Amino acid sequence: MYDIIFISYNEPAADTNWSALKDRFPYAMRVHGVKGIHNAHIAAAKMSVTPMVWIVDADAIVLDDFNFNYIPPRAERDSVHVWHSKNPINDLVYGYGGVKLFPRLATINMDTSTPDMTTGISDKFRLMPQVSNITAFNTDEFSTWRSAFRECVKLSSQIIDRQDSEETISRLDVWTTEGYERPFGEFAILGATAGRQYGLDNQKNTEALIKINDFDWLKEQFIKAD
What are 170-179's pLDDT values in tens digits? Predict the structure, then answer.
């Protein structure tokens, strides 16, 4: 019922994941090369013609049993819906990297000044229990470090609405200690550790936190940490 938009920038496995999605869902569309996470999602919403729009990240390997067939009740069609995803390095399963269903107009008009994009779309949020994909961000050293850094900044700074403190602490512990032996696991742990500290140091500093959406800045941080 709703358009499916695949968003990519320069992710190494983007073409492979896009091809797999397109084979199963030929009507899916792609936004590629739009700089800035907020801007890319706005472009995706503008490409769509349906009242809600499915968003698939470039590093998502969509599971065979996920079919994009969910239709929210009318009262929830202004809500952000996020499905679970499995982390290939530390096996955490939660909303990080999951397939999303966004209200189209709210996405176009989102607040682009927020460090966490989803909270800039709507204050109404639904976490969906089904696992939609593997978020295979561990394709190279920088992509792995960047993904872990960004997520752990969000967790440790507690910028995400409705965070459960105990759950957040548990997830940070897993991010910063587990999966070293997995492909690029070392860089996930390094990025997670640096991101946790950056988030703690800048909990009330929105200007500093929003930098996690600037991939050029993230590249500079990665090079400095090397």
Answer: 999 999 999 9
Q: Residue 162: pLDDT above 70?
A: no
Tokens of 36: 């800035």
Helix, coil or strand: residue 191: helix
pLDDT, residue 163, reads 72
Greatest CA separation for the chain: 49
- 3-class SS of residue 106: helix
Q: What are phi and psi of 138, to 5 degrees?
A: -90, 65
Joined together, the tokens standing for residue 185 give: 């696991």
- Distances, alpha carbon 217 to alpha carbons 36, 113, 117, in Å: 12, 16, 17
Burial level of 216, CB count in 10 A (0-12/13-18/19+)? exposed
This prediction's pTM: 0.94
Q: What value does the mean pLDDT of the chain take?
A: 95
Q: Phi and psi for 3 in degrees, rounded to 5?
A: -65, 145
Please, are residues 102 and 51 in contact by the beta-carbon 8 Å criterion?
no
